[in-house]
Specification:
Layout lengths: L72 H8 L2 H21 L4 H5 L1 H14 L3 H15 L5 H12 L2 H24 L6 H20 L2 H6 L1 H28 L11 H5 L2 H5 L5 E5 L1 E6 L2 E7 L6 E6 L7 E7 L9 E7 L3 H8 L4 E5 L3 E2 L11 E6 L3 H10 L3 E7 L2 H16 L5 E5 H4 L5 H12 L3 E5 L2 H14 L3 E2 L6
Parallel strand pairs: 9-10, 9-12, 10-11, 12-13
Antiparallel strand pairs: 1-7, 2-3, 3-6, 4-5, 4-7, 4-8, 5-6
Helix pairs in contact: 2-7, 4-7, 4-10, 7-8, 8-10
């Protein structure tokens, strides 16, 4: 299978090269009985690293090339048909059935209030990507169901929250379909509608189709700048245009062909109320450039674990999401939080070539799958490359999460700030750092992960890696019966 190109730095797609962050595999202090864990410590380059001559060893010989696991077609299908696609299938199916009844004239409500179905679907699509709604949803689940509920229920909660994008996509497509049907019906009776309404409807449909095209997985993953500059901008533009089109349609009296509907009449229409209910700030930023391949951004104030920040050089245009690292266990009470930005696209290259003093960000951060880590008693966070940015905060703020980081020349590439955060806040009994350059290659990831999973007695594994790494680890976990959640590209 060919590997697509991805441009989201927060997804851990960067493969970089630098010296080793030290790892102390001494598990004697663990309250659980250690097992034979395949961990190899190497000499640290940092004076303050938690190692001593007694537990420092030379790097082992290059590891043997791991055998590829045999994955059944059933496992591949189950992972492919995830909650995202299930949400998508159900909502699209229901809307298509409803569209069929409406087109056949068998559903009077849809014929009388088509605008309500258009704007209702589109508003619900926007709601799924709204930071306030998302944070409230995560807060409710994490507060009410943490640790005491059955594991299968907590896994279901995480899966549902992670795949809300399936509702976003299906409602958006359904809204466009309803708008097209509404416009077709208006053109069939165009003699009773104003030309301005029909023209505005056509422009709105075109804007929505551009938005939908820019959000397709192929465009999003291989031409990410096109996605950022068009999907979000045209999305909000077309949503406002849809509101205006719906209100104009309600305000026009087709009986006498005049704009003589009062404001009271418009307000009484269902479609108007579906248009109701839909903070950016430029903040100082310090940028550390430990290598030409990574920029470490530092912002004031701490954050809870499991959040992502959207940043941009422009107030309106492209916003890029990165995992937030809060520097100590105080979380929101710490002084700073950090973003790891791997240099891949034009935006991240500009952070290295022309570091800004201030940058636009959304003050209210949105929650990622790691935010549900509080649901579980113990877990593992495995990541590669810049995927550390989305993983580290969980392990810093909770002593019940184990960190596995696989990369190349980690300390040189990611710098002393990130190295210091790891060594100061993640104990050696729950830390495995694998430098593929120092060790001569990548580990047998599933063998290492299975050993750590058994030793740590974890309930779940969260994965942040590139497309190929995520595919292999997630399918391997499913085959071994290990609950795992991987990176999404909103397919």
């Amino acid at each position: 299978m060919s590997r697509p190109h991805h441009n989201d730095a927060e997804k851990g797609t960067l493969e970089v090269h630098s010296p080793q962050l030290a790892a102390n595999p001494d598990l004697a202090k663990s309250e659980k009985k250690p097992v034979d864990l395949d961990v190899f410590p190497v000499q640290s380059l940092k004076k303050d690293a938690p190692v001593s001559p007694s537990n420092v060893a030379k790097p082992p010989p290059p590891p043997p090339k791991p055998k590829k696991m045999s994955i059944s077609k059933y496992v591949i299908f189950i992972i492919w048909y995830n909650s995202y696609r299930r949400f998508f299938s159900v909502i699209i199916t229901l809307n298509l059935i409803a569209l069929g009844f409406a087109a056949a004239g068998l559903w009077p409500y849809a014929q009388k209030y088509p605008g309500a179905l258009v704007v209702g679907n589109l508003n619900f699509a926007v709601l799924m990507r709204n930071e306030i709604f998302g944070r409230l949803l995560y807060l409710f689940v994490n507060t009410c169901f943490a640790k005491w509920t059955p594991l299968w229920f907590r896994l279901g909660c995480t899966s549902t929250l992670q795949h809300l994008g399936g509702i976003h996509s299906s409602c958006a497509i359904s809204g466009i379909a309803w708008l097209i049907l509404m416009l077709v019906n208006q053109f069939k009776a165009k003699y009773i509608y104003s030309d301005s309404i029909l023209a505005f409807g056509v422009i709105t449909v075109i804007a929505l189709l551009i938005t939908m095209t820019a959000g397709l997985p192929w465009v999003r993953n291989t031409h990410h700048n096109v996605f950022e500059r068009n999907h979000r901008f045209f999305g909000w533009t077309s949503l406002v245009m849809t509101w205006i089109f719906t209100i104009l349609s309600n305000a026009y009296n087709s009986t006498d062909e005049k704009w003589d509907r009062s404001g009271v009449y418009v307000v009484r229409q269902q479609a108007f109320w579906y248009t109701v209910g839909m903070s950016l700030l430029k903040v100082p930023v310090d940028i550390e450039l430990p290598s030409p391949k990574v920029a470490v951004l530092r912002f004031e104030r701490g954050m809870q674990q499991g959040l992502l920040a959207r940043i941009s050089r422009s107030m309106v245009m492209e916003y890029h999401a990165f995992g937030i690292i809060s520097c100590n266990r105080e979380g929101t009470h710490s002084k700073y939080h950090y973003l790891i930005c791997g240099v891949q696209g034009d935006f991240t290259k500009s952070l290295v070539n022309d570091p800004p003093r201030k940058i636009w960000t959304r003050q209210l951060k949105f929650a990622g799958v790691s935010n549900t880590s509080t649901l579980y008693k113990r877990g593992i966070r495995i990541c590669t490359g810049t995927g550390l940015g989305a993983a580290l905060s969980t392990c810093i703020q909770s002593p019940y999460w184990y960190l596995i980081w696989i990369g190349s020349d980690q300390e040189k590439t990611f710098g002393p700030t990130i190295s210091g955060l790891i060594h100061r806040h993640v104990g050696p009994e729950r830390l495995l750092l694998w430098d593929s350059k120092e060790r001569g290659g990548r580990p047998d990831t599933m063998k290492v992960l299975k050993e750590v999973y058994d030793y740590w007695q974890a309930e779940v594994v969260f994965i942040t890696s590139n497309y190929v790494g995520n595919f292999e680890i997630q399918h391997g976990c499913k085959a071994l019966g290990i609950p795992a959640f991987g990176t999404l590209w909103d397919f």
